[in-house]
Amino acid sequence: MLTINSIKNGIVIDHIKAGFGMKIYKYLELDKADYSVALIMNAESKKLGKKDIIKIENNLEMDFAVLGFIDPNITINIIKDETIYKKIKLKLPSRIENIIKCRNPRCVTSIEKNVPHIFNLVDEKTGEYRCEYCDQIYKNKNVSL
Predict the structure, then answer these.
(1) DSSP state, 23?
(2) Of 68, 114, 117, 123, which one's alpha carbon is 20 to 30 angstroms from that of 6?
(3) Residues annotated in the binding site, as ranges?
(4) Binding-site residues for Zn(2+)
(5) Domain range for 32
(6) Per-residue model confidence as pLDDT tens digits over 114-134
């Protein structure tokens, strides 16, 4: 049986869709961490069937919009003195900037340099975003609401 000890102070990223833990691990650059990090993949979950969990024995600055875009079902638990100090439930962000790139070759973001790629959420159920400049649709296939 696998045993992962509790952390004293840090962050637990829970309810990650199975298989997405490594994506978040890489995004947060946890492979370069000099503190304890546990990536648990395919853990049993009553709610999800299987899930990934990341435990970080440190406090990090995180962009919740990016994490919510990767997986809107994530829960962030802030741990202080081995107890949950704060719980944050993520969701799809209503607006994202420079997370995805517009693929429309006629979009101003493809022609001009230094123009931010801005997308606005159009449909939360399908995870559909629309480019602010050219109305190109991007469907977030990671959404599992």
Answers:
(1) H
(2) 68
(3) 102, 107, 131, 134
(4) 102, 107, 131, 134
(5) 10-89
(6) 999 999 999 998 899 999 999
Would you say the C-alpha torsion 61, 65, 70, 71 has a positive or negative sign?
A: positive
In 3-state terms the chain splits into helix, strand, coil percentages (rounded to 5) of: 15, 35, 50
| Backbone φ, ψ for residue 28 (5° rounding) | -80, 0
In a domain, 144, yes or no: no
Single-letter amino acid code for the residue at 57: E
Tell whether 122 is covered by a domain.
yes
- Tokens at 88, concatenated: 């944050």
User: pLDDT band at residue 9, thresholds of 50, 70 and 90?
Assistant: very high
Kindly report, residue by residue over 51-109, the tens digit of the pLDDT.
999 999 998 888 898 999 989 999 999 999 999 999 999 999 999 999 999 999 999 99
**Given this model, what pLDDT does residue 4 score?**
65
**Alpha helix stretches (DSSP H) within 28-85:** 64-70
Six-digit token pair at 60? 């990090």
Number of domains present in the structure of the chain: 2
Residue 52, class by beta-carbon neighbours within 10 Å (0-12 exposed, 13-18 middle, 19+ buried)?
A: buried
